[in-house]
Amino acid sequence: MKSRTMIIRTLSIVLALGSVTLYVQQPHAADREKLLSDPGIYATFAAFKLDPEWWKLDKGVRDTAAAAVKEVVRKHNEQIAIDTYLLRGLSEYADVLIRVHATDMLYNQAFLVDLMGTTFGAHLMNTSTFNGMTKKANYVPNFPDETKAALKTPVDPGAKPYIIVIPIRKDAAWWLLNPEARTRLMKEHTDAAIPYLKTVKRKLYHSNGLDDFDFITYFETDHLADFNNLILALQQVKENQHNRRFGNPTLLGTVHSLDEILEVFTR
Amino acid sequence: MKSRTMIIRTLSIVLALGSVTLYVQQPHAADREKLLSDPGIYATFAAFKLDPEWWKLDKGVRDTAAAAVKEVVRKHNEQIAIDTYLLRGLSEYADVLIRVHATDMLYNQAFLVDLMGTTFGAHLMNTSTFNGMTKKANYVPNFPDETKAALKTPVDPGAKPYIIVIPIRKDAAWWLLNPEARTRLMKEHTDAAIPYLKTVKRKLYHSNGLDDFDFITYFETDHLADFNNLILALQQVKENQHNRRFGNPTLLGTVHSLDEILEVFTR
Amino acid sequence: MKSRTMIIRTLSIVLALGSVTLYVQQPHAADREKLLSDPGIYATFAAFKLDPEWWKLDKGVRDTAAAAVKEVVRKHNEQIAIDTYLLRGLSEYADVLIRVHATDMLYNQAFLVDLMGTTFGAHLMNTSTFNGMTKKANYVPNFPDETKAALKTPVDPGAKPYIIVIPIRKDAAWWLLNPEARTRLMKEHTDAAIPYLKTVKRKLYHSNGLDDFDFITYFETDHLADFNNLILALQQVKENQHNRRFGNPTLLGTVHSLDEILEVFTR
Amino acid sequence: MKSRTMIIRTLSIVLALGSVTLYVQQPHAADREKLLSDPGIYATFAAFKLDPEWWKLDKGVRDTAAAAVKEVVRKHNEQIAIDTYLLRGLSEYADVLIRVHATDMLYNQAFLVDLMGTTFGAHLMNTSTFNGMTKKANYVPNFPDETKAALKTPVDPGAKPYIIVIPIRKDAAWWLLNPEARTRLMKEHTDAAIPYLKTVKRKLYHSNGLDDFDFITYFETDHLADFNNLILALQQVKENQHNRRFGNPTLLGTVHSLDEILEVFTR
Amino acid sequence: MKSRTMIIRTLSIVLALGSVTLYVQQPHAADREKLLSDPGIYATFAAFKLDPEWWKLDKGVRDTAAAAVKEVVRKHNEQIAIDTYLLRGLSEYADVLIRVHATDMLYNQAFLVDLMGTTFGAHLMNTSTFNGMTKKANYVPNFPDETKAALKTPVDPGAKPYIIVIPIRKDAAWWLLNPEARTRLMKEHTDAAIPYLKTVKRKLYHSNGLDDFDFITYFETDHLADFNNLILALQQVKENQHNRRFGNPTLLGTVHSLDEILEVFTR
């Protein structure tokens, strides 16, 4: 990781000049695999609705606008991992969800500011933004070995077209429980989740102080019925009593490449 | 049901190309009766308000726009069951409600994305979307035989012009009750509902994790007074203490064909 | 009351054709007195704000638009009782409130859809809609004779320029009380209200399942101070502990004929 | 005070004709001092934000619009006491707050409807409106003599540029307390407030049933630090446990004449 | 500090005339260091979103607009300390946050009114405004010496690019605790915070009565992970049980000069 000072200077320059060439000078491209699996990574989920004005633009103008978005993505791809989802039709909250991972939140912001500065971006209404970071598993080290083993169940291969994002805030009583009590409750929570490990891929982000909730929970699945049963199982353990907020909004969408999403909006 | 992979590929193509011909190649048309009665079916309720700009369009433009909506419906009718309702006048939340059933949520999205991509759709503001799925009855198998028999009371024939949609979220205590306790409470709930089975048709969707509530309850009736008494009866059983959210919004509207609804908006 | 089937067919035709002549063929005009006093009547309260675009229209265009509203009202007056109120200046929620009574909710919708389809209606933003129905008094039959007698106190004659509309939702505990306990609490509630019967006219609508609350309470008065003291008295009885929602919004306005209200908006 | 019937007729004429000359015939001008100190007076606080379109108008158009506002104020000044405040910069809820006092709420409405009917008014978005009335002090008669004496402490002379408006709703338990218990709690509340009587001027409005809260509390001060300490002191007495709503919104602004405020918006 | 009367007169003139020269006559420029460290200072945090119309303006018009903003800042810099933050990309609530400190809230308002009166300002939608004031530390004087000493830990030097602003409202029970009990709880709170003093800079504002919460907490850091752990630690002490509101919104952004921010919006 580069020195902090350099990052900051870079951001300032990026923000001030919007220069494309700057990032080309970066020595190493972003390692997508590491960004998506390492602890200490910062994630931003930004959800957008397209304003009605967009649809009044000529097809040609919209095509040019889409090309500019792709250019912005190409430029930032070296620093960050970008995933895009289509929520339109399944959520009143957003048409598009963009998930960004980077070693520093500054990179997430630099990309999103650039994106929102394009012609397409000028028509995006930012309806929700969730910030969080990844950490090493908190309770797992104190779980019994068989639970640890079960948690290593590999996810079934194959496309997982559905994603669900649920922000969660625990109540004050939760945080006042001693670590042993929380571990016990999380063990019960984990046991309820294990049957679904094969078909529902999960990822957890910590948000305390970075946003108005404590966790962002992210799920990918090909089997919505399994996912529905997973959540039902998690509602039936005692830890669920400590969820002061669960969703609001719950974001349900489908995985699509940026090209596919832009195609939907430039038809 | 087609293989999952094929469905996904199809959706991507539909989304990317917006091709009409694709679906024509599907071997079997959607079986509306099965979609409306089977378990394991995915439903999306999408509510829309028309923006004020719509009314400034020429009658001719609006007529062409309406025709395009009908074409989109025709195209997707082979995959999904589409029902339309007029909420305008009875709800500040929406002018139109569209209920879609399919064997896969992807089909619901593909239709709604296509619909929202029409000229008419560009003027629709998506104010609420509810997602859920159907399941086999959960508590009925453990009910006494007379209750089971009573539940088979056929609904009176004839048009049921009114529909009501109420999302419900239970509290954490509900989900922590053991199955026997929940069955007992649901038996009491069911007994309260039985007198209204003839005049109020009910359908239940499970939403845990798919949206910000646990159930979508859907009702059709010709007798709003009976429906009002049904809800009153359901409020007077102990299970009602566990409803953390009931409505918000409650959507009341009337059943109308798409043609009738489009007629209202193109007059 | 006409047969249900006929009503439904009529609505469909009204919605589809917007024909004025249809209603002229109806044999009996709506009996306003009965609609305003009978049980089993359906009421819709629709509140609107005028959008800023309205004010940019020429005086002539606005005059023509107002005339069209009067025509729509004339057409539906045979089926429904329409009351209009000016909220502008006293409520941020709405400029105008329209209260409609009919033997069937379909008539309320048909009128409001027609109204919203006029040029004036295209500039009305529907900010709140409350649905309810009238019923026979629930607890009064079990009240002591002197309370029954007191409830027959006639309202003072004369104009009552102020109206207040307050939606109320009771808590689950209320509905679980046995009828005797509720009657006891309602007796105390009624005793608190009796001193205000002369100057504050009241009307109650039941909304369970028809909207996001249990009751719409409607008041007319010439003495706002009396009304304020009435509510204060009602807050000081135990039944008030069971009001989970009281207002939100509370709508305060003044009684005005449609002509007066349209005059305000076409000056 | 004129007869009620006359007032109503007058309002109808004012609303219908918008005639300026009508009010000139009123025999007595509004006594501002009495309106601001008497019990039984009705107050409306109307908060507005200017829409972005206003700023696109030519300076000349805005000047003419401002002159029309002044004319409306002049016309109604005979019936009502009008105070204006600038909230812009200190509150996201509103740019301008207008407080109106009259012997009848009808006058408040007539003025605000006239104001909102001007060119300037067409650009005002009404974000909050609070209605209340003044009453004789409720608990003071039962306070000990020394508390009564302390309450007569005169407010320091001099301009009080800051105003704060806080709506308050008590919980059900408060209203169920017997009068002695409430007097005891209000005595403690009053003792906490006495040290601030010199620098913070207070005025109380009763809103039960007239709006979605029980009280509007209004404060004027030259010393925001004193006001902050006053509220802190009031939070530390037991009566504060019964405040179910306190603010939401809290409106902080500065006292300015209408001319000054219009100057800000016509620069 | 100048006499109050003079300040008020000055504000009125500033508001009425918008004169630049007035401030030039002020004898002493604002001492930024003192404003940012003294007790008794008034702060306003104003958050803005740019409306979509801004982006339709020509680059030249936007450049001229940006220059006017800089001129307004220059003019007011003599009275107030202005800090600017970029929230765009990391918060759906705002694009820009402006923090202002002055010896009097009037100065904060005068600056923000001037800013909002520019062409750029006409496109700023004020989404949140927080008001507060600084005070001497409340509980520290009663802490043990070692805690006092620990609190003097100097913050690590170097840029702190991230800022987080969290408004907090305590519950009624908190304010009813006796000072000793509160000191005890705050001692525990402080102990939890001490490990983060080096990397997370904190500043506290008191808002009781000035806004809809009791405190504005402001943080600057270069290490978001440390900040996240700080909040996590603060959630695990008993004082956290008394936070009725924590965030809503939580504002996360980055420190940028006004020039950098304007550059982003004029590209």
What attributes does this structure have?
Alpha-Beta Plaits; 9-stranded antiparallel sheet; alpha+beta; homopentamer; 267 residues; 10 helices; 38% helix; disordered N terminus
Helical run tally of chain A: 10
Detail the poorly predicted runs of chain A.
1-28
For the biggest sheet of chain A, the summary is: 9 strands, antiparallel
Measured as a percent range, the helix fraction of chain A is: 25-40%
Oligomer status: homopentamer
Strand content of chain A: 15-25%
Shape of chain A: elongated
Number of strands of chain A: 9
What is the level-2 CATH architecture name of the largest domain in chain A?
A: 2-Layer Sandwich
What is the structure about, briefly put?
Chain A has 267 residues and is an alpha+beta fold.
Report on the structure:
- By secondary structure, chain A is of the alpha+beta class.
- Chain A has 2 domains: 4-134 and 253-266, Apc35880, domain 1 (Alpha-Beta Plaits), CATH 3.30.70.1030; 140-252, Alpha-Beta Plaits (2-Layer Sandwich), CATH 3.30.70.3420.
- Chain A is built from 10 helices and 9 strands.
- In chain A, strands 1, 2, 3, 4, 5, 6, 7, 8 and 9 form a 9-stranded antiparallel beta sheet that branches.
- In chain A, strand 6 and strand 7 (215-221) form a beta hairpin.
- The termini of chain A are far apart.
- The D-E interface holds D 52, 55, 86, 88-92, 158-159, 161-162, 164, 166, 219, 222, 224-225, 227-228, 230-232, 235-238, 240-241, 243, 247-250, 252, 254, 256, 259-260, 263-264, 267 and E 4-5, 8, 11-12, 15-18, 40, 42, 44, 46-47, 51, 53, 105-106, 108-113, 116-117, 122-123, 126-129, 131, 133, 172-173, 175-176, 206-212, 214.
